[in-house]
Structures are given as C-alpha cells and as structure tokens.
Amino acid sequence: MNNWKLATIILAILLGISLMWSVQQRANSEKTQLKAYALEHAQLEYALKDAIESYEQGGSQKELGERLHWLSGFVVNINPAGETVAFHSFDFDYDTNLVLYEVHRKARGNQATEEDIDRLKILHQLINKFQKTALDNVERKTVDDYETEFIEFMEYYETQKEKLIK
C-alpha cells in the first residue's frame, strides 16, 4: 500500500512540474508573438517614413498612392497575435489602415492635399511611438508589461486620434 502512495505522490509532483512547464511555454510563445507584432509595426514605420520622404523629395502622387496601397495591404496582415494582449491596439491598427487607404485613394487620383500628407506624418509619429515603446527593453518584458504598454499607448492614441481621422 505504501508503494501506491509513493507512486501517487511522485505522479502528482510530475504532473505539477509538467503543468508549470506548460504555462511557461505558453507565456514564452505569447511573448514571441507580441515581439513579432511589434516588429511588424517597426517595418511599417520604416516603409511609411520612406514613402513620405520619397514624395517630399519630388515623387509623384501616383507613386505615393501605390506605396500607400501596398502599406494598407501590409497593415491588413498585421494581426494582434492570436489570443494575446495585443487586442488592446486593434483600433489603432484599424485606423492606420483607414488613413493609409484614404490617402492612397486621393494620391492615386492626384488629389492628395498637404493636409493628407500631414495626416501621414502624424500616423508615422504614432507608429514610431508604438513600435519604440513595444520594442524597448524587449528581452526583459513580460506579457503583463506588454499589456500595460499597449493600454497606455491606446490612451495616448485616443488624445491624438482627432488629428488623424477626419
């Protein structure tokens, strides 16, 4: 009978260790997804900056429109990383795509105004702030740190949204 008790205790300990390992693996997986999500925003930030600079250095509105069209497609494919805390920033991603698409449509018709270019610059600043915040000290961040930062960014974004969405 003592052997059964010992076997049950050992099994319970192994099950507990397995459960703790599983929880840790899930947290690491979620953290990896969040890092990838932030890196996608870094790529978007760089590409948008390049599109704005090319236009300001004498590029055509049609070329700007094509680049923005590509970027709006890129944003559609940025997903809030499954069931991670990135869902907090979903509205920002949606509005980013909206602005890119609106300015793209105008630029393709050669009707983008200086106000539209200013909207792109504001969007660039917001994306830059988002990705820098998300990627700052990335190796030491926990999922809870990401969640806190996404919530803080969205609170800031809500104060700036009026300048972006017209």
Automatic annotation (TrEMBL):
<protein>
    <submittedName>
        <fullName>Uncharacterized protein</fullName>
    </submittedName>
</protein>
